[in-house]
Design brief:
This protein is α+β, with helices and mostly antiparallel strands. The chain is built from five helices and six strands, in the order H-H-E-E-H-E-E-E-E-H-H. The longest helix has 19 residues. It starts with a helix and ends in a 13-residue tail after the last helix. Bound molecules: adenosine-5'-diphosphate and magnesium ion.
Length: 198
């Protein structure tokens, strides 16, 4: 079995991510994983959205909400670094007003990267979640819940920004396709999410 992200993080000689090749791109499947989530999935994560490194996300057309370090332990101790898919929800604050629309608090498909983002030479293990929804505004500080249901691919190093963007776009399509299966869809009603009558 491949070492978990937490095990890799503990190594002094963390191996470099493999460089992404043209062969990898042309052979990418459009649906990944078994027909129903298999152990260790589902894995649930929760915590307030943190500021990340302030680079990458938005200028790649893919903002990624970061979870606090301690909240990613259930994931990082169970799986290898890589790109994952599942569902996520931003929670409505209990008090005070919010910049977001009521629709922004629904459960949406997400893609997540668990790792060191080799392209940006990150030093810290992070879990970054891109929620597949157009939000009305940023939601730093809001509580976020995520349910990780399957694995898409390893983290790769990229020789160009274009290649990275292209793979992120493919990840989004693969995640959406993979989540249309009924045994995945039913996790939108998972008890970790706050479901309000519509
Ligand atoms: P950072 O380096 O601070 O994580 P990003 O450029 O990755 O910056 O942007 C992430 C922020 O963008 C999130 O924390 C969130 O507030 C906001 N955001 C807006 N839309 C989305 C979305 N669809 N998915 C994730 N984050 C989003
Ligand atoms: Mg980010």
């Amino acid at each position: 079995m491949s070492p978990t992200a937490a095990e890799v993080a503990d190594r002094a000689d963390r191996p470099a991510a493999p460089v992404r090749t043209v062969e990898f791109r042309v052979s990418r499947p459009q649906v990944v994983g078994p027909n129903r989530p298999q152990p260790p999935f589902p894995i649930s994560l929760s915590g307030p959205v943190q500021h990340g490194f302030g680079r990458g996300g938005k200028d790649l057309g893919c903002p990624t909400a970061n979870l606090p370090d301690e909240s990613i332990i259930p994931l990082s101790t169970a799986v290898q670094p890589g790109v994952y898919y599942g569902y996520a929800q931003v929670l409505q604050p209990r008090k005070g007003s919010s910049e977001l629309f009521p629709d922004d608090f629904k459960v949406f498909p997400m893609v997540m990267s668990l790792g060191w983002n080799p392209f940006f030479k990150n030093e810290r293990l992070t879990a970054e979640i891109h929620i597949m929804h157009e939000f009305r505004s940023d939601f730093y500080g809001y509580d976020m819940r995520a349910l990780v249901l399957g694995y898409i691919r390893p983290e790769l190093d990229y020789t160009s920004r274009e290649a990275l963007i292209e793979d992120i776009e493919t990840d989004k399509v693969v995640a959406l396709n993979s989540l249309t299966r009924p045994e995945y869809q039913k996790h939108m009603q998972d008890p970790i999410f706050e479901l309000k009558p519509s």
